[in-house]
Amino acid sequence: MELYTSASIGIALASSGSATPNELLQDADTAMYRAKQQGKNRYQLFSSGMRIQVNSQLQIEVDLQRAIANQEFSLVYQPILSLSTQTLVGFEALLRWEHPVRGLVSPAEFIPVAEEAGLMIPIDWWVLASACQQMADWRKAYAAADLTINVNISAKQFLQTDFCEKVSQVIEETGLPPSHLKLEITEGVIINNATHISKRLNHLKELGIKLAIDDFGTGYSSLSYLYSFPLDVLKVDYSFVSRMDQENGLAIVRTIVTLGHNLQMAVVAEGVETETQKQYLLEMGCEFAQGYLFSRPLKPEDVSQLFTMDSQSTHVSPTQNFILPMGAPV
Ligand code: C2E
Ligand code: MG
Ligand code: MG
Predict the structure, then answer these.
(1) Which of 305, 289, 302, 307 is nearest to 329 (CA)?
(2) Does the Cβ of 213 fall within 6 Å of ligand 1?
(3) Residue 182 in 3-state DSSP?
């Protein structure tokens, strides 16, 4: 058999600040990994900036290990609203890490490191179980019967062979009716693994769980997968919503909304920040929205307060004319 190989090369110069031969090799190794990250089959020259980045990633990794044991993670819940009635329909659970020294660390910063280090899977399962338990508790304690909980699922978690069994187990243990759980997956999960995925998504549907495609339009979209998978909800990414007032921005969002509707999916606009965006979305028939215009992600105690504020109300949905204190960013 004829084999083809490629090489990724890391180059470090003795003048780049390494004190020992071992450090020099380490630097070359760091540069080689950078060459691989950049698409392989290339060379990369080491620079001291890489050392800082590697050190800070390593530090996050060490801190993450400790964070799991010390229970430094928590969840916040961002309201999702019906645009036409301005009533609450559910929440998206979002992960937060309260670092003992650095304070709040953004998921955008630590999730990629945690994924790389293989730490994200246990965190993801913790998120799913906690969010389902929280929604089950709210349903019992308050008039929150109709609300659903959205949980983000990472690619690695979704690809675990016993994923569906584990989800069933969480549902059983928490007592949350499966129709009140929506799993958010991204395009990457679907496209990269199309053959396995179809079976798995159908299995989840059979369990009664709803499925949403998150950050739609930001991955390498292939429209054909949208036809073949049983998706219930399409979430229009913040990057499109925020550009609705620019040339062609509006047309793109309108096209995505129409696409979702034609495929019998409900559409949620993410990151709605202005009244103008809300009006445009209403006009194009987008059903649901979440964003700072309505509410930032809330701590569980603030959500509970929201329910008690409205406990006298006869509405099943806890809020009419949904107005929330903006609160501190969480
Ligand atoms: P996402 O799932 O698309 O979540 C929406 C993000 O948009 C959240 O950022 C939310 O706080 C932010 N957002 C909401 N409204 C607005 C707005 O009006 N303007 C702006 N600029 N942003 C808004 P967050 O919480 O930082 O999460 C970032 C990403 O991290 C999430 O994107 C999701 O991909 C990931 N993530 C968060 N929690 C989890 C989790 O528990 N598990 C997994 N696997 N991923 C998670
Ligand atoms: Mg999401
Ligand atoms: Mg999103």
Answers:
(1) 302
(2) no
(3) strand
What's the gap in Å between 214 CA and the centre of ligand 2? 5
Q: Nearest ligand, CA of residue 297?
A: 1
Residue 303 and residue 289: Cα distance in Å, rounded?
18
The length of the chain is: 330
- Backbone conformation region of residue 324, classed left if phi is above 0, alpha if psi is from -120 to 50, else beta: beta
Could you give the CA distance from residue 180 to residue 162 in angstroms, rounded to a whole number? Answer: 21
pLDDT value of position 88: 92
Cross-strand bridge partners of residue 313: none
In this prediction, residue 24 carries a pLDDT of 92
Instruction: Please tell me the pTM assigned to this model.
Output: 0.84
For ligand 1, whether the C-beta of 124 sits within 6 Å is yes
Instruction: Tell me the residue type at 46.
Output: F
**What is the per-residue pLDDT for 38?**
85
Phi, psi angles (nearest 5°) of residue 325: -65, 135
- Determine whether 219 is exposed, middle or buried from the number of CB atoms within 10 Å of its CB (0-12, 13-18, 19+): middle
Q: Which residues contact 146 (CB under 8 A, 6 or more apart)?
A: 89, 316, 317
Q: For ligand 1, atom 13, which residue shows the shortest CA distance?
A: 271
277 in ligand 1 pocket by Cβ < 6 Å?
no
Cα distances from 236 to residues 252, 273, 314, 322, in angstroms, run: 10, 14, 32, 21
Question: Which of the listed residues 73, 80, 94, 237 should we mutate to test ligand 1's pocket, taking the one with most ligand atoms within 8 A of CB?
Answer: 94
Under 8 Å between Cβ of 36 and 44: no
Count the neighbouring beta carbons within 10 Å of the beta carbon of residue 25.
Answer: 13
Q: Identify the sign of the CA torsion 113, 118, 120, 122.
A: negative
Q: How many helices (H) and strands (E) are present in the chain, helices listed first? A: 13, 11
Map residue 233 onto helix, strand or coil: strand
Q: Which residues of the chain have pLDDT under 50?
A: 311-323, 325-330
